[in-house]
Design goal:
- The complex is a heterodimer.
- By secondary structure, chain A is of the alpha/beta class.
- Chain A contains 15 helices and 15 strands.
- Chain A has helices spanning about 20-30, 60-65, 70-75, 75-90, 95, 115-125, 135-140, 145-150, 165-180, 200-205, 240-245, 270-285, 300-315, 330, 340-355, and strands at about 5-10, 35, 55, 105-110, 160, 185-195, 230-240, 250-260, 290-295, 325, 355, 370-375, 380, 385-395, 400-405.
- By secondary structure, chain B is mostly helical.
- Chain B has a single domain, classed as Orthogonal Bundle (Non-ribosomal Peptide Synthetase Peptidyl Carrier Protein, Chain A), CATH 1.10.1200.
- Chain B has helices at about 5-20, 40-50, 60, 65-85.
- The chains are: A alpha/beta, B mainly alpha.
- Chains A and B meet through helix 3 of A and helix 2 of B.
């Protein structure tokens, strides 16, 4: 089986619309979570939402990157996807070195073109107005993958995976399997979402899991998640091919684990998350002692962070409290199907630069979780333990964990 | 509606759809010349229908080739609608 490495990355996030911008914000602890004011769709000038902050992408103008035809035919979610994929492909010089049919595009997107769906449905339901003819192409969750393939001319397999908050980690794992086994020579893997619509925010508000302040994972006073949006894409290929063409290598993917809690549609259970982490380590041929960093799912909800901490204790036993852990959602928010890929990039940057991103916003670490949460500033990476896990634990108990390794 | 007004409005819709200046669109231009593809055609037809309160038949959309075809089609459909309104239901 082939060794798989990451040779390109691209992102559009609330803390940067290129990887260098994202990296600068990540290690400076600059958050993208901000007040969002009254939404244009708000009824009678009132949002009717308990929370007031979210993590929006700023400074992204699709017209600067895409033709009018593509902008017209797409929702913001696919526009994020195309531009992030271009960044990743350019960095790795993907299209110069691989035949189009040898490249796969494996993405995670759970929400589809949410704003287009809401706007057109509202027009139909409340004004009996006609539905825009491009609604289908704007709303289909697979549109991002299709547009990337069209934009870059990729003719290999294109898949979209929808597993809620684990979508893009599942996509990354699927792409990893495809490269490792030789099904594809190279892949663009990642995720994209633009779900910050009035209806979506109200739906989350009704679930009462969004922070009225700001997401601060593992903090004793944490009070929920902060919703986000964006896209993150990674180029995967075999180590041999990357070396042969002298490509930049940012990290190696060494393992992938998946599991289902088989328990509850919203309440997580630690056994499921622990199983996914164990499977990722086993797949990597690694032991718990090899892990030097965990990028946690860390949503900032009471339930997730407690259960995820319990899962880490189950897997790592006595070492659990010594492993540096952070959740970067306190910076870029929770972008649902895209968040796993955003966090994978954060983890790759940690391995590549040798500094571990910190967990912003924490006042006092929850004493019941008994983990080594990285606070206040980036921490130097362990020079020996060079494997990092990136956890994604979705609603519905769908867990995906990718094991990444420093390449040297 | 005056033919010149119909033409002006159609051109405005096409220009807006393609993000090009209105004065760069003329009646005799073909869709190929304006890089209007099948998806653009559906999009423009939708806006035309809304603007003029008409229904463009499915089989007509395929035969539209020029800006003038759109203008002529709108005038024809408006005329048909006016005739129907003037004819009392039995």
């Amino acid at each position: 089986m082939k060794r798989v490495v990451i040779t390109g990355m691209g992102c559009i996030t609330p803390i940067g619309i290129t990887v260098p911008e994202f990296e600068a914000s990540l290690f400076a602890g600059r958050t993208g979570i901000a007040e969002f004011g009254i939404l244009p769709e708000a009824v009678e000038g009132q949002n009717g939402i308990r929370f007031t902050r979210m993590a929006s992408v700023t400074g992204f103008d699709p017209d600067q990157h895409l033709s009018t035809g593509v902008v017209t035919a797409t929702n913001l979610t696919a526009q994020f996807a195309i531009v992030a994929a271009r960044q990743a492909a350019e960095q790795s010089e993907l299209m110069k070195h691989y035949a189009p049919e040898d490249i796969a595009v494996i993405l995670g997107c759970s929400c589809g073109g949410r704003s287009s769906e809401e706007i057109e449905t509202a027009k139909l339901y409340y004004r009996n107005a006609r539905v825009h003819p491009l609604t289908v192409t704007r709303t289909m969750a697979s549109a991002g993958g299709s547009h990337i393939s069209i934009d870059l001319g990729i003719t290999g397999p294109v898949l979209n995976i929808s597993t809620a908050c684990a979508s893009s980690t599942h996509a990354l794992g699927q792409a990893f399997h495809m490269i490792r086994s030789g099904v594809s020579e190279a892949a663009i893997a990642g995720g994209h979402e633009a779900p910050l619509t009035f209806g979506f925010l109200r739906a989350w508000d009704s679930m009462r899991v969004v922070s009225p302040t700001a997401c601060r994972p593992f903090s004793a006073d944490r009070d929920g998640m902060s919703l986000g949006e964006g896209a993150a894409m990674l180029v995967l290929e075999s180590l041999d091919a990357a070396l042969a063409r002298n490509a930049p290598i940012f990290a190696e993917i060494v393992g992938f684990g998946m599991s289902a809690d088989a328990h509850h549609i919203t309440q997580p259970q630690s056994d499921g998350a622990a199983l996914a982490m164990r499977k990722a380590l086993k797949d990597a041929g690694a032991s718990p002692d090899d892990v030097g960093y965990i990028n946690a799912h860390g949503t900032g909800t009471q339930a997730n962070d407690t259960v995820e901490a319990a899962a880490i204790h189950k897997v790592f036993g006595d070492r659990a409290a010594q492993i540096p852990v952070s959740s970067t959602k306190s910076l870029h928010g929770h972008s649902i199907g895209a968040t796993g890929a955003v966090e994978a990039i954060a983890t790759v940057l940690a391995l590549h630069t040798g500094q571990l991103p910190f967990n912003a916003g924490v006042t006092t670490v929850d004493p019941t979780i008994n983990l080594d949460i990285i606070l206040n500033e980036p921490r130097p990476a362990d020079p020996v333990r060079d494997i990092a896990l990136s956890n994604s634990l979705a609603f519905g108990g769908l867990n995906a964990v990718v094991a990444l390794k420093r390449y040297r | 509606m005056e033919e010149a007004t119909v033409e002006q409005r159609c051109i405005a819709i096409i220009a807006k759809s393609k993000l090009i200046p209105e004065d760069s669109v003329t009646r005799d231009q073909t869709f190929d010349e304006l890089a209007i593809d099948s998806l653009d055609k559906i999009n423009i037809s939708f806006e035309i229908e809304d603007t003029f309160n008409i229904q463009i038949p499915d089989d007509s959309i395929g035969s539209l080739k020029t800006v003038g075809d759109i203008v002529d089609g709108v005038i024809r459909l408006q005329h048909q609608a006016a005739v129907q309104l003037a004819t009392p239901a039995i």
